[in-house]
């Protein structure tokens, strides 16, 4: 009797590595990521909760790993107002064909295709009478209503056979080709925390992957994959993303962490953490399983170091991409109108930021000048913050430092500065809602208010106070800091990677100063002045792209 398994596709979550694997090297890294949450009412497929968000999170992780990502979800299509990016069968095939047809793909290039949504399994009987399961991914226009065997399928069912993707990847000339299928979702008859497992008592075990491939499954036969409410995604997916972003690169007894996540490291990390988390929290087993042929040392992702120190002693830390609320809300009584409206900002790229402001010693080693010498409210010394530095001076410093170091040093954007200052906090200061602890984090109140710089009216040595959650010092005091942007009013809507107006008269200044009131040392405080302005409480810190 023909059997149908809806949402019980054996490929709960697999990463398939096709034959001909080579090191990723410095070639192109291309990914097609497809996620489907909502199916048509007549499709015979229930809608899902986290397929789209899983696709989004994996896309973000892949971008951070250097991939060019072609993301296809219903939300992406809605935002763009463009049906061509919707995850319909024809669109998905066209996008995959387009990526696999990139000119001059070769051994140094990498291709990744991922599916997130429903999968179906139908029993197939070949001409000799042999029966075997066939597996299909369900795009947004798929329909399986009334279908009980694959012999009943037509083009109008809009299903994508897994074997079709295998064949396409085999023909592609890229050296590294991976397929990710997260197509086993909630069975409505089961508790909502579980995704259906790889096999039930009536579901045949998956045949071995084709020769030259490897598969990594989220669980073994007769187990179920778990979606965790706290993660708002599958547990396996959570640890997959986490591993790709660096946590899988763990030091071993005879091998230190090397900044490269290999296939072996990733699968070990995901398997161990998935099993431990699920068993500890739910007292059930979920045992990720790897099958087939694979290169254990295949590099999947390179990781930027968490920090580095350059040749003049500047220490910079990695600031991960993310989204935050920039500016001040109407409820903040200390806020100025020019800090409003508060708005959502997304920074799509990681970057490095100096842990301290540029010092006099660092300035002199690059520029050979001492612009602060002989000026008021200055104490000299190599570790004191460099002051009396204009925006134009700071830009010239960055140019010379870039030439010296072979990296592209620059000033941070205003959004990068506030994002880093907040350090994933939403309060007025990175350490809390009020200024009671301000003296622990910065020098302030030398002229205005009654702060710890009242009797020491000058820019102090950097890094002497407590750091914020990201390891950055003096964000709430000591000297204010130039940013790269022209000054302008905030947007009222969500923005991505803002860089200020295209022109203007003043450049942005951020951060508290040793002379400021406490309210002027808040994370959202913004200021500005002419690019040639110099001041005893004004300096800068450097940034550099990842």
Characterize the structure shown.
The structure is a single chain. With 546 residues, the protein is of the alpha+beta class. The chain has 2 domains: 4-232 and 285-300, Rossmann fold; 307-545, Alpha-Beta Complex (paralog of FGE (formylglycine-generating enzyme)), CATH 3.90.1580.10. Helices cover 20% and strands 22% of the residues. The protein contains 9 helices and 28 strands. The chain has helices at 51-64, 74-80, 89-100, 162-171, 235-247, 263-282, 360-367, 391-405, 414-422; strands at residues 4-6, 14-17, 29-35, 68-73, 110-116, 119-125, 131-137, 160-161, 176-182, 194-195, 214-217, 225-228, 233-234, 260-262, 289-292, 299-302, 307-309, 315-319, 322-326, 343-347, 351-354, 409-410, 480-486, 495-496, 507-510, 526-529, 538-539, 543-545. It has a 5-stranded mixed beta sheet, with helices on both faces. A 5-stranded antiparallel beta sheet has the order 17-18-21-28-22. The protein has a 4-stranded antiparallel beta sheet with strand order 1-6-7-8. Strand 17 and strand 18 (315-319) form a beta hairpin. Helix 1 (51-64) packs parallel to helix 5 and helix 5 (235-247) crosses helix 6. The longest helix has 20 residues, at 263-282. The termini are far apart.
Overall number of domains: 2
CATH topology of the largest domain: Rossmann fold
| Oligomeric status | single chain
Strand content: 15-25%
Radius of gyration: 28 Å
**How would you describe the shape?**
elongated
DSSP summary: helix tally: 9
The CATH architecture of the largest domain: 3-Layer(aba) Sandwich
Give helix % range. Answer: 10-25%
Structure class: alpha+beta
In the predicted model, the low-confidence regions spanning at least 5 consecutive residues are 1-14, 17-25, 185-204
Tally the beta strands: 28
Alpha-carbon distance between the two ends: 57 Å
What is the overall pLDDT average?
84
Strand order across the largest sheet: 2-9-5-3-4
Report the CATH C-level class of the largest domain: Alpha Beta
**How many strands, what sense, and barrel or not for the largest sheet?**
5 strands, mixed
């Amino acid at each position: 009797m023909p059997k149908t398994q809806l949402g019980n596709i054996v490929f709960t979550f697999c990463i398939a590595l096709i034959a001909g694997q080579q090191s990723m090297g410095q070639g192109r890294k291309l990914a097609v990521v497809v996620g489907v949450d909502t199916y048509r009412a007549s499709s015979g497929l229930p809608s899902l909760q986290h397929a789209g968000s899983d696709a989004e999170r994996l896309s973000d992780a892949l971008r951070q790993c250097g991939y060019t990502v072609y993301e296809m979800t219903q939300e992406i299509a809605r935002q763009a107002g463009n049906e061509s990016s919707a995850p319909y069968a024809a669109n998905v095939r066209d996008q995959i064909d387009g990526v696999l047809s990139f000119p001059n793909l070769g051994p140094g290039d990498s291709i990744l295709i991922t599916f997130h949504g429903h999968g179906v399994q139908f029993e197939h009987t070949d001409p000799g009478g042999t029966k075997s399961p066939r597996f299909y991914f369900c795009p947004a226009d798929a329909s399986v209503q009334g279908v009980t065997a694959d012999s009943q399928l037509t083009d109008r069912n809009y299903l994508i056979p897994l074997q079709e993707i295998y064949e396409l990847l085999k023909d592609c000339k890229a050296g590294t080709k991976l397929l990710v299928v997260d197509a086993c979702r909630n069975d409505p008859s089961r508790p909502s925390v579980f995704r259906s497992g790889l096999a039930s008592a009536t579901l045949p075990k998956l045949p071995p992957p084709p020769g030259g491939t490897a598969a990594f499954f989220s669980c073994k036969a007769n187990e179920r994959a778990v979606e965790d409410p706290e993660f708002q995604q599958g547990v396996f997916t959570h640890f997959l993303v986490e591993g790709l972003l660096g946590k899988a690169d763990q030091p071993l007894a005879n091998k230190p962490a090397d900044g490269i996540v290999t296939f072996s490291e990733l699968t070990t990390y995901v398997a161990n953490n998935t099993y431990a988390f699920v068993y500890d929290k739910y007292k059930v087993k979920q045992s990720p399983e790897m099958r087939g042929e694979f290169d254990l040392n295949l590099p999947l992702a390179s990781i930027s170091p968490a920090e580095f120190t350059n040749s003049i002693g500047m220490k910079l830390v990695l600031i991960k991409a993310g989204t935050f609320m920039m500016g001040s809300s109407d409820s903040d009584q200390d806020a100025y109108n020019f800090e409003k409206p508060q708005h959502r900002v997304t920074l799509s790229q990681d970057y490095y930021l100096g842990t301290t402001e540029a010092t006099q010693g660092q300035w002199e080693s690059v520029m050979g000048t001492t612009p602060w010498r002989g000026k008021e409210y200055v104490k000299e010394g190599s570790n004191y913050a460099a002051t009396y530095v204009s925006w134009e001076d700071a830009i010239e410093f960055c140019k010379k430092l870039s030439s010296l170091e072979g990296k592209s040093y620059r000033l941070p954007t205003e959004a990068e500065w506030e994002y880093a200052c907040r350090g994933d906090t939403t309060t007025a200061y990175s350490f809390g809602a009020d200024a009671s602890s301000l003296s622990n984090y910065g020098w302030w109140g030398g002229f205005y208010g009654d702060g710890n710089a009242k009797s020491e009216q000058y820019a102090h040595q950097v890094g002497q106070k407590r750091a914020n959650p990201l390891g950055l010092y003096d964000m709430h005091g000591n000297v204010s800091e130039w940013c790269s942007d022209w000054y302008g009013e905030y947007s009222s809507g969500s923005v991505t990677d803002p860089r200020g107006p295209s022109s203007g008269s003043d450049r942005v200044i951020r951060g508290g100063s040793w002379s400021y009131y406490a309210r002027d040392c808040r994370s959202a405080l913004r200021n500005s002045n002419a690019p040639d302005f110099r001041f005893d409480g004004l300096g800068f810190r450097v940034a550099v792209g990842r």
